[in-house]
TrEMBL record:
This is Flavodoxin domain-containing protein. Gene3D superfamilies: 3.40.50.360. One of its GO terms (biological process) is heme biosynthetic process. PANTHER family: PROTOPORPHYRINOGEN IX DEHYDROGENASE [MENAQUINONE], PROTOPORPHYRINOGEN IX DEHYDROGENASE [QUINONE]. GO terms for molecular function: FMN binding; menaquinone-dependent protoporphyrinogen oxidase activity. The lineage of its organism: Bacteria, Pseudomonadati, Bacteroidota, Chitinophagia, Chitinophagales.
Length: 171
């Protein structure tokens, strides 16, 4: 079975997960938009990786553009976020709002923790995060502006097992 990882992030967390997945599954990892038409068409399954910024999925536009092709594939999606993986409804909400119920219902989804290095953010992202955290506080929620790094290879074990199972079934 042929697979491909298509990902989009901003500061390296989504890319790091893509690189680990690529090594574990021996399939290419390409940033969204950098793939060839043949790579997409030939894939039996696609693993989409995206981070989230102010509720918006980085890979959203790519998914919308390629909806037609995605409809015929086995789809996996991993979402990299600051929101804890235990807050499943909120995380699922990001996906449904971002790519629509038709595609998101077809995806097997995995929620992976991200990382934050405040000093490495763009000026705009520093502002957005600071304002977002203040607004969240007003709603009784919490968004961290303190550095964290929960990106670890072992977070991918479920996703890797799920993909391997698919390959075994279809042999
Ligand atoms: C400006 C900004 C906005 C963010 N907005 C959200 C958000 O709405 N929800 C969330 O769960 N995480 C949010 N995060 C956390 C990121 O998703 C997290 O840092 C992730 O690791 C980024 O991955 P990347 O480096 O691959 O883009 C935000 C981070 C920044 C800097």
């Amino acid at each position: 079975m042929q697979g491909i990882i298509i990902y989009k992030g901003k500061y390296g967390a989504t890319q790091q997960y893509a690189a680990w997945l690529s090594a574990a599954l021996n399939i290419p990892a390409v940033t969204g938009g950098g793939e060839t038409k043949d790579q997409l068409e030939d894939a039996d399954y696609i693993i989409m990786g995206t981070s989230v910024y102010i509720g918006k999925l980085q890979l959203r536009d790519w998914v919308k553009k390629n909806k037609g092709l995605l409809a015929g594939k086995k789809l996996f999606l991993y979402l990299v976020a600051g929101t804890p993986a235990t807050e499943k409804e909120k995380l699922k909400g990001y996906i449904t709002a971002g790519i629509g119920a038709d595609i998101s219902n077809k995806c097997t989804c995995f929620f992976l923790p991200g990382k934050l290095e405040f000093r490495k953010l763009s000026w705009m992202d520093k502002c957005l995060l600071t304002i977002g955290a203040k607004l969240a506080k007003g709603r009784g929620e919490s968004i961290s502006v303190t550095d964290y790094n929960d990106v670890k290879a072992e977070r991918l074990s479920e996703l890797i097992a799920s993909v391997r199972k698919l390959s075994e079934v279809s042999v």
